[in-house]
Specification:
Length: 223
Amino acid sequence: MATDPGGAGAVVAHMSAHAADAEVQWAGCGALWDMATGSNAYKQAVVDAGGAAAVVAAMGAHATAVEVQRAGCGALQNMASGSDACKQAILGAGGLAALVAAGTAHPPCHALVSVAVRHLLGDLGAFAPAAPAPPPPPPPAAVAPLPTAAELAEAERARQRAEQRAQQEQAQREEAERRAQASQQGQHGLQQQLTDAQQTLARLQAENAQLRAASRSAQTSAI
């Protein structure tokens, strides 16, 4: 049978005055657990008296005290089975985090935590967490605009200018090569002329020497 929640405010005040006393917190959470049993009006009266916040504070201050954690989970479970306003008050006080921490650290609390969380998250209605939004679709690939007639004409003119420059450069290279070849041929011709001149001079010098020798021989015979 449910305990009259009219004394919930006194329990909460006593818990607040003795926050460091684990025994007081365990007894207070147990009393609120009992008071929140029964109709939604009982649950709402406990919540309105600050019961959710008092239980969460007790569980946070005495995280290693298994009995405090178990009584706190029971009180939150009963309050969470009430109206949406009760659920909202528990969530606002940090009740969900307190339940998860208790269930993680204390196996004896698992069953109570499971029911309480199901009440909070399975029956929240308007307070249920929204499903995560799907990621936005990737932006469409950018499509380059087609070139205009003017752009195509300009591109063709640029291609023709490039071809003309290439032809001019080729012609300049061929002319330079022709001049270099002609210069080499000219140098070869000069070299040949110099060689011929040297040979002619040598021949004339030889002939002159022969004439002088013959002249001397003739003079000697005349004497």
